[in-house]
């Protein structure tokens, strides 16, 4: 399911004629964007946890029809691990697109086309995911969208738009990208569906369900039947639940825009001192990743990701695409031994700014998100402290990290504060016998 906004989530949940879909959304982290890294917001956090707890007991009419883990099966032994339903014959997949309301038409969005990419950017910038208090909205750059939507083996047909027939205005968007995800020993082709966005003025037109059906149809035509996806709400049934942690890099700005608040008995000057970082990195051989490092980083990543139950199956082409530095999109650093010149460690983060709404002094919150990190010879604490230093040097305001993989070993020590929202991971048409701990997950979805 794609739950990029409340309207689309509600539409799908109430859809009277649901279809199987390998949908996903890795973007509900925006709900974390208005948290206090000083520990404030306890009332909102408590209210959210109560609401989530109550949602477990309510009916999920849409998801009860889907090949996903069901709440009623929790605790039942004997259910096999693996695909819930077998794939159907490709000849049984609907050959023609689903019908849209009469005023609208499908379009395939060629992200290589600068004009179309600009249309998509403008639609998302003005209509995509906001936090609960309407203070921040994700602001994916055009370069980020092209990076996120054109991995090796991507399908242009999975970048789907809806236009008004009369004016050709782009009013809705949904995408999918293919990936290989390893679950224990099995490597599975999966779809990651993202960026479901309907123009705010059209959210009564029930476009979201038919968009999800259409991307599902196109994914099925490629003989892909599983997906990994995330949501900020509880659906049947999370394979794990993670939390975002936030490390202030520019605490005065974060407090000024309402992202965080001064802690009890803290002054602004004390807060700034608390989060002050060294001027230079400390690890010998710490440098920006280069193209020549791709084979070594691939080896490091594959060995590291083998430690986790669910993780991507990256080859060198994937590593070159996903982690080779790209200005204002993804930053990656390696540690090269001064003695042997061997690449021993690796860290990375991607750039996802948010628009700051209704603030006279600031318009953009520049956020870094921890991506994949491998600490083989350098302690992870030292490696990530250097990542914070270079992020600060590049004028990021905040550094975010999920408590997946081994991240929980450095979060508190490096002065990250827990966010007040949670991110739930799901597998579509694939059952795990038991829920995972966040530390057993090796997958970061955009």
From TrEMBL:
Low complexity composition bias: residue spans: 20-33
Q: Which reaction does it catalyse?
A: N-terminal glycyl-[protein] + tetradecanoyl-CoA = N-tetradecanoylglycyl-[protein] + CoA + H(+)
GO CC terms? cytosol
GO biological process terms held by the UniProt record: protein localization to membrane
| Gene3D superfamilies for the chain | 3.40.630.170
Family named by the database record: Belongs to the NMT family.
Q: What is the designated name of this protein? A: Glycylpeptide N-tetradecanoyltransferase
Upper lineage is: Eukaryota, Viridiplantae, Streptophyta, Embryophyta, Tracheophyta
